[in-house]
Design brief:
- With about 110 residues, this protein is mainly α.
- Helices cover about 75% and strands about 0% of the residues.
- It contains 6 helices and no strands.
- It is elongated, with a radius of gyration of 16 Å.
- The chain starts with a helix and ends with a helix.
Length: about 110
């Protein structure tokens, strides 16, 4: 917020990347949390998702999809909420959407194989 006030920028400055980090972190944590709740043996198994690159890669790709395309609620927040809050909230919502969609995809592939 301080940087945006000093540089008089209203939109998401490219040099600020903490919002991208937080959105990605939320997507990965949410993927593990949902999958751990839905299928605990799948996440804790030595050959299960805990060592799978699909959780991290899928979370990253889906978070970036929602962050770039900005469908639905992500786009609404990006257009209407300005300043530092808007910079953070659209990536938080993109992280939640990416994490939930990644969990659903991995759940379908791992459980219904």
């Amino acid at each position: 917020a301080v940087y945006m006030r000093k540089t008089k920028q209203q939109n998401d400055p490219q040099e600020i990347i903490i919002d991208e980090f937080i959105g990605q972190y939320i997507a990965i944590l949410l993927s593990y949390a949902v999958l751990g709740y839905a299928t605990p043996n799948l996440v804790t198994d030595a050959n299960g998702l805990i060592f799978s690159p699909y959780v991290i890669i899928g979370s990253f790709l889906l978070f970036r999809f929602f962050d770039i395309v900005k469908p639905s609620l992500v786009g609404y927040v990006d257009r209407t909420v300005k300043g530092a809050n808007g910079t953070m909230f659209d990536d938080i919502i993109a992280g939640i959407a990416g994490g939930l969609l990644n969990s659903l995809i991995l759940y379908i592939f791992y459980v219904w194989k």
